[in-house]
Amino acid sequence: MFVLEWLGRSLLGVLHAVGGFFVLLGQTIHGAVRPPYAPRMVANQFVRVGVDSVPVVLLTALFTGGVLALQTFKGFSRFHAEGYIGSVVAVAMIRELGPVLTALMVTGRAGSAMAAELGSMRVTEQIDALVALATDPVQYLFVPRVLAGILVLPMLAVLASVTGMIGGYLVAVAYLGTNPVRYVEVTFQYLDLEDLTSGLIKACVFGLLLTLIGCQCGFHTRGGAEGVGRSTTRAVVAGSLAILISDFFLTKILM
Amino acid sequence: MSAALPVIRLSGLSKSFDGKLVLDRLDLSVTRGESLVVLGKSGTGKSVLLKHVNGLLRPDAGTVEIDGEDFWKAGRVRRDEIRRKFGMSFQEGALFDSMSVGENIAFPLVRNTRLSPEEIRARVAECLELVQLAGLETKSPSELSGGMRRRVGFARAIALAPSILLFDEPTTGLDPITTDVIVGVISALGKRMNPTSITITHDLKFAFAIADRVSLLYDGKIHSSLPPKAFEASSDPHVAAFVRGDASLERPEDTGTFRSIAVATSGPTIGAAP
């Protein structure tokens, strides 16, 4: 009986959060298309979400590309296909790992920071103050962050993919002794424009998800410093889950 | 006729949080230029009441009328127009900590008016002067003391020259001297702007210093609404208990363990009779 109760309550909680997400998405879109516009705030968020995330994204991508080359070598050498490491790394990074890993790293960095920032604004009544000053908090707080996320994630994803490919090259050529010319040739031989567009579309969607979920978790914070902590955790967990689950469906749709 | 029309009228206001009824069919009205102070002990929903007045919270039932207009029947744009009639000061100031003091006060002007940067700067300086904090524009909120933060909050609240002021616990947690400064500032604002105002507090001395009328919020309802002198001398048991600071009328669940200890120690003790 307790199990059913727990299941029901959890399901209701999830449905409530998902419903809230779409309500806030609607309000954010409505806030984005009507004045006042705030390009400077978008630019600020662009720097905080994007530029500041570059080092961690690059580092992640470099090692992921390297590991991918190592693992592919191990597997492919069993049927003498080592020559194709380059194309496997390229396709995997551009279609899948570039966007997903970037989004996960940015969720941990920026999504959590948004939840913490909006959460402390909520518990110190700064969000109430915005409303009292006739300012729509969703338009003022959500729109710049979400727009920045949608704009910057594709750029970071491309950066990550290229870095991953460089990581793969370094490992394959310097460590595994693959022919460098052949590696580069194979890298681009099987690459399609569609690989790039699908990666970019994914990155845009992830950018929207992680920023809006970060903002949503912060916006609905209750209960002081402890509540802010809970919201931050929730933003990372819910954001990462949303990215991984939507990734499956996006891949299916974009195939 | 129009002078008697209340500026703020709350009728049948009810609100609960997580199943707990905080406001229970509450009625309250404030006339133009009047300074109403709502007293009540901590946790009785004073802030909740205040946040209903300018639509920060939406009532579960009942209506909020501002100048005869039903707030929640108005559209989103109209609601923001109505909100501009209000200046609200929050408990801890609620200053935007990502901005300087000057930017905080300029915020409502930048968002809601077409004033030039020079005009905004002049208005910010004027508002800071009104709260006796001239020249503090470039300070960050974190550099200010609690009393100063609240006064900057007042300055931000009056930037748009609102006709109604709402003060949420403006003196809570301040020392007596700073409280006196706040009383002075609020009285000065009253003289200068002649606003309609609602102030929420549990500080009796402060309440009597600024009020035209004092109300007691008790059990989710406005219990008594009298001029300060009459309030102080009221024979209503709840008002008298509040003025005296007497907890004996409280229900045990409100005072928690403290009350049950009091009952246990004041009850007859076996063997204690002479």
Structural account:
The complex is a heterodimer of chains A (255) and B (274). Chain A has one domain (39-254). In chain A, 86% of the residues lie in helices and 0% in strands. Chain A has 9 helices and no strands. Chain A is elongated, with a radius of gyration of 21 Å. Chain B has a 6-stranded mixed β-sheet with strand order 6-7-8-3-9-10, sandwiched between helices. Chain B has 11 helices and 10 strands. Helix content of chain B is 39%, strand content 22%. The termini of chain B are far apart. In chain B, strand 7, helix 6 and strand 8 form a beta-alpha-beta unit. Chain B folds into 2 domains: 2-85 and 163-266, P-loop containing nucleotide triphosphate hydrolases (Rossmann fold, 3-Layer(aba) Sandwich); 96-161, no CATH class. Chain B has helices at 46-53, 76-83, 101-112, 117-130, 146-158, 176-193, 204-210, 228-232, 237-244, 252-255, 257-266; strands spanning 8-17, 20-30, 35-39, 61-66, 69-70, 86-89, 164-168, 196-201, 213-218, 221-226. At the A-B interface, helix 5 of A face helix 2 and helix 3 of B.
Topology diagram in text:
The complex is a heterodimer of chains A (255) and B (274).
Chain A: H1 2-33, H2 39-50, H3 54-76, H4 85-123, H5 126-132, H6 137-175, H7 180-189, H8 193-219, H9 224-254
Helix pairs in contact in A: 1-6, 2-6, 3-4, 3-6, 4-6, 4-7, 4-8, 4-9, 6-7, 6-8, 8-9
Chain B: E1 8-17, E2 20-30, E3 35-39, H1 46-53, E4 61-66, E5 69-70, H2 76-83, E6 86-89, H3 101-112, H4 117-130, H5 146-158, E7 164-168, H6 176-193, E8 196-201, H7 204-210, E9 213-218, E10 221-226, H8 228-232, H9 237-244, H10 252-255, H11 257-266
Parallel strand pairs in B: 3-8, 3-9, 6-7, 7-8
Antiparallel strand pairs in B: 1-2, 1-4, 4-5, 9-10
